[in-house]
């Protein structure tokens, strides 16, 4: 029998996979629909989007005007932090359009705060932080190797 916390954590991973899949399909509506109505997303460049409508509108503009790279990611930690609330920590890389390898300059650390809302998981906050590792190139290289291993599996999200 699955405990409420186990069900929440399973739902959180599934939600994260759906989020990256929506991005990779360049589907602003599907991406935004995964957020709570008042959810927020903080982009790689520090831009902030608040609420589903703003997230969808901004991403629609981005997808219409830029050939976006595709995500590959690995969930590094996942834990309940309160009743019906989970924290998902992941690392992510991006494969530029027309390429087959990651662009290490776009590697990131992603944090998602996920809550159950009317029985469904919803993202309250997505924080996307550049994984620059200033002065520690060995960490940047190790992260690229880790994400490349996920990319080679053909999956969008790896675990463990």
Give descriptors for this structure.
160 residues, alpha/beta, Nuclear Transport Factor 2, Chain: A, seven-stranded mixed β-sheet, 7 strands, 36% helix, globular
* Count of structural domains: 1
CA-to-CA gap between the ends? 23 Å
Beta-strand share of residues: 35-45%
**How many β strands by DSSP?**
7
Number of helices: 4
Give unreliable regions as ranges.
none
> In the CATH hierarchy, what is the architecture at level 2?
Roll
Succession of helices and strands? HHEEHEEEEHE
Give the mean pLDDT.
94
Largest sheet: 7 strands, mixed
* Overall spatial form: globular
How are strands sequenced across the largest beta sheet?
A: 2-1-6-5-4-3-7
Rg over CA atoms, rounded to whole Å, is 15 Å
Q: Please report the first level of CATH classification, the CATH class.
A: Alpha Beta
Task: Give the structural class.
Answer: alpha/beta
The CATH topology corresponds to Nuclear Transport Factor 2, Chain: A
Helix content: 25-40%
Describe the structure concisely for a colleague.
This protein has 160 residues and is an alpha/beta fold. The protein contains four helices and seven strands, in the order ααββαββββαβ.
């Amino acid at each position: 029998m699955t405990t409420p916390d186990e069900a929440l954590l399973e739902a959180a991973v599934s939600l994260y996979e759906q989020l990256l899949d929506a991005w990779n399909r360049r589907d602003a509506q599907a991406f935004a629909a995964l957020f709570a109505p008042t959810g927020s997303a903080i982009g790689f460049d520090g831009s902030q989007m608040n609420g589903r409508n703003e997230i969808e509108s901004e991403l629609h503009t981005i997808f219409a005007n830029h050939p976006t790279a595709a995500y590959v990611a690995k969930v590094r930690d996942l834990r309940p932090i309160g009743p019906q609330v989970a924290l998902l920590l992941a690392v992510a890389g991006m494969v530029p359009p027309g390429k087959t390898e990651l662009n290490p300059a776009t590697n990131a650390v992603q944090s998602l705060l996920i809550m159950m809302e009317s029985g469904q998981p919803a993202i309250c906050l997505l924080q996307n932080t550049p994984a620059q590792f200033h002065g520690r190139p060995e960490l940047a290289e190790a992260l690229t190797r880790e994400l490349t291993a996920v990319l080679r599996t053909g999956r969008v999200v790896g675990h463990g």
